[in-house]
Amino acid sequence: MPAPIRLRELIRTIRTARTQAEEREMIQKECAAIRSSFREEDNTYRCRNVAKLLYMHMLGYPAHFGQLECLKLIASQKFTDKRIGYLGAMLLLDERQDVHLLMTNCIKNDLNHSTQYVQGLSLCTLGCMGSSEMCRDLAGEVEKLLKTSNSYLRKKAALCAVHVIRKVPELMEMFLPATKNLLSEKNHGVLHTSVVLLTEMCERSPDMLSHFRKLVPQLVRILKNLIMSGYSPEHDVSGISDPFLQVRILRLLRILGKGDDDSSEAMNDILAQVATNTETSKNVGNAILYETVLTIMDIKSESGLRVLAINILGRFLLNNDKNIRYVALTSLLKTVQTDHNAVQRHRSTIVDCLKDLDVSIKRRAMELSFALVNGNNIRGMMKELLYFLDSCDPDFKADCASGIFLAAEKYAPSKRWHIDTVMRVLTTAGSYVRDDSVPNLIQLITNSVEMHAYTVQRLYKALLDDISQQPLVQVASWCIGEYGDLLVSGQCEEEEPIQVSEDEVLDVLEGLLVSNLSTPVTRAYSLTAIMKLSTRFSSVNRIKKVVSIYGSSIDVELQQRAVEYNALFKKYDHMRPALLERMPIMEKTATNGPTDIAQTNGETDSTILDTKHLPSITHPASQANDLLDLLGGNDVVPVIQTTVPTKPASAGGELLDLLGDLSLTGGPTPTPAPSVPMSQPPFLLDGLSSQPIFNDIAAGIPPMTAYNKNGLKIEFTFERSNPSPNIAVITIHATNSTEADMTEFVFQAAVPKTFQLQLLSPSSNVVPALNQGSVTQVIRVLNPQKQQLRMRIKLTYTHKGSPVQDLAEVNNFPPQSWQ
Amino acid sequence: MIKAILIFNNHGKPRLIRFYQYFAEDMQQQIIRETFHLVSKRDDNVCNFLEGGSLIGGSDYKLIYRHYATLYFVFCVDSSESELGILDLIQLICFVFGQVFVETLDKCFENVCELDLIFHMDKVHYILQEVVMGGMVLETNMNEIVAQVELQNRMEKSEGGLSGAPARAVSAVKNMNLPEIPRNINIGDINIKVPSLSPF
């Protein structure tokens, strides 16, 4: 059989292959030749064949059949064989195969070989891929070599020891004595690897860490020599003496000094020295400086030193080298929490980095900028960040937008600024904002009462420009629905009011409904907005038409809404204005205790905003349908206002149970003015689940007759709770002494501004004739200022086929109910 | 710790692959492909650090690379290595390649020829072994590294090397006197001129 071809020959041949297939063919042919050569047990050519095999392995072809051959090579006497054999073992073998255990004996022998290079090879192999068993067997040999005076072997033994410790941590103790005089070594290679070994031991064991703290003075001395020593040709790199070793020592000092006052004290001087004396014109100098900065920040250094460190980082930011800017930003990000003020000084440089070309630098600059925003710099920073948002990559936009929202929320100097900022984000990066920004923004707008006209005008104008960004469109349609009347009335204080007619507004909203760009959610928003405008605009017919069209929409959500709104037009027209009233100010808090009512009810709002609405009617202004929109609808009976609980299902269950006996024709169940959908209505749940709280502590509050007319008599009974004496619970009992039932009975009540009121659901809405039964309903009144309770009530019902409506004032409340 | 050292050319063809952590063969090739993909997309004026791809590491791994002419040198490291230090290390290794492979001494690292790496794959591994061992930096003194590599190469040569004809190999083994080869290498004995190095 002809001699196997040489490695170079093979390489040359393979490179002539023009296609992948050709290459594969050549390789397969060669593999076959190699296999037969292996079978012949030819010692002379084995090394050549294994070398070729390794080459093919690098190209990605299977080479496992050579594994045993590597072992044979290792066992050979020739240095060449051993060299390629060990390399093959490191590249082809690993712990998962048992075959490597066969190496252990060879390695053991080679560790004691007379030739140092053979010893070196075996140390290298053991240190690369030795398994735990091998390490256990051979740790003793390694430890012996760690104490040799041969620096070539000593440095390899040190790294091999690191590997042994990683594989078998219990053996760490074994190497402790050998470390005693490692640092007195002159050879830099040994020093370097010794520091690595010490670092590994300190990181793994706190005991070792405290033990090695005593080495700090020695390390400081070595570092000092490196800095102070003159030019040393052996170790010089660009004028700095062995920068690699300096960096290693600095890292070890960091570990030793962390959390320890004495060690940190001992290092302070040398750190200051390195920081000020190191030449920064080359990368090596900067590597040392960087490591120094990291060490200063990690140990208990004095504040002057820390400021020096941060200033170095600041200087790095101005460096032309982008790598240095990158590492500077990374470290500043880590230190901004602890040394905020010092980092603030470099804010303008950091903000400049937002304009860098490099993606990683931009990202870090963005994160750092958000960390540095505070009340003082919010205006300037936001300008920069918004500019950044305009021009950054799409990957950044979502994070940047959320960051801007958060910062704006925390530090907004004024409501107008806040709204402007949010609007700017929506118009520039509208499709990237997170989903929860829409309700948050809506809440923000609702709460900025004086800005409503301005906001709706701006949003309207934005809609005219662009309807593709869904979050923007959703917020805009919600606002137009709410404040459309302000829009057409042309009142706007903040900027030039625009003239827009009702039809134009409806055109825009209808446009959203039909546009292909709108998502189903957006369509739902615009349909509801159109519906709301029916109480604010005069062109009701047009709205009725739109609503009826969508009653047969394919989209189930739209269809449901349209059907409900239709019903509202047809059967419940008298309730429409109240239902579609302005939303009250919402609170975001999730936990409101019973005495901590932050919600306002519709009555307060109506006095501020809508004078044309029926005054003093407490419709807990949950425009139910809006609420349903925001929550994506539910399948509770639509017209009934319910707070769709996002709380545990049990609450919802109770609610549904209560409504279970109500028919579709029932009046709205007044429920507490809900806050942002996500929060729970505390009253409701309390009322449902914990009636017993309201024991008759003030037993003996006499009941009273609030109303008695036309056969309808309404009585009030009282309870006041012990834990919250500001709350009075009134139960009304409505009875009917006429011969005909009173159907569709709705009781509504309003209280003066200083009170707050909550109506729970009535027991039914039919008051049976001839006093055969009664309708009861619970009212809870909060009276924090203990003023005299007064109430205005409104009753609507149908009697003998004709609707009846009546208003009355109730003033004769017994004093015990409110004092 | 250095997890892997990958050297490939502008087309992604591997020139030196060394993993210091176990990966199955197909995984290794996939990592090479993915790394090439990430690194070749990079512009020349961006920084040399990349958060690692999904394959080779989780959150702790970074890719640090340098691009010289037709070769990419990529180191995959974890947070225990200094980023700037690794950049220096890559330069050092290139210098060493330049020293060992090129006869005249004034060559700087940019002239490391890809062909050298291609045709001397085994030698390249041996050189690397003197710099990085088990994923940790072993020696950073260029003269030391070069000296040790040269000595070992000489040993190999005296045995006939990989390509030696069988007869020569046998006689070489007979003639080689292993115990005589010195244990301690004294820098003073070896005559290596310090090259004028281009700036780091």
UniProtKB/TrEMBL annotation, chain A:
The keyword Protein transport applies. PROSITE patterns: GAE. It is found in: Cytoplasmic vesicle membrane; Endomembrane system; Golgi apparatus. Residues 699-814 form the GAE domain. Coiled coil: none annotated. One of its GO terms (biological process) is intracellular protein transport. Keywords: Cytoplasmic vesicle, Golgi apparatus, Membrane, Protein transport, Transport. GO terms for cellular component: AP-1 adaptor complex. It is a peripheral membrane protein. This is AP-1 complex subunit gamma. It comes from Cyprinus carpio (Common carp).
TrEMBL record, chain B:
Keywords: Cytoplasmic vesicle, Golgi apparatus, Membrane, Protein transport, Transport. It is found in: Cytoplasmic vesicle membrane; Golgi apparatus. One of its GO terms (cellular component) is cytoplasmic vesicle membrane. InterPro entries: AP_complex_ssu, AP_mu_sigma_su, APS3, Clathrin_sm-chain_CS, Longin-like_dom_sf. It comes from the Eukaryota. Residues 1-155 form the AP complex mu/sigma subunit domain. The lineage of its organism: Eukaryota, Metazoa, Chordata, Craniata, Vertebrata. The keyword Transport applies. Pfam families: Clat_adaptor_s. Gene3D superfamilies: 3.30.450.60. GO terms for biological process: Golgi to vacuole transport; intracellular protein transport. This is AP-3 complex subunit sigma-2-like. Part of the AP-3 complex, an adaptor-related complex which is not clathrin-associated. The complex is associated with the Golgi region as well as more peripheral structures. It facilitates the budding of vesicles from the Golgi membrane and may be directly involved in trafficking to lysosomes. In concert with the BLOC-1 complex, AP-3 is required to target cargos into vesicles assembled at cell bodies for delivery into neurites and nerve terminals.
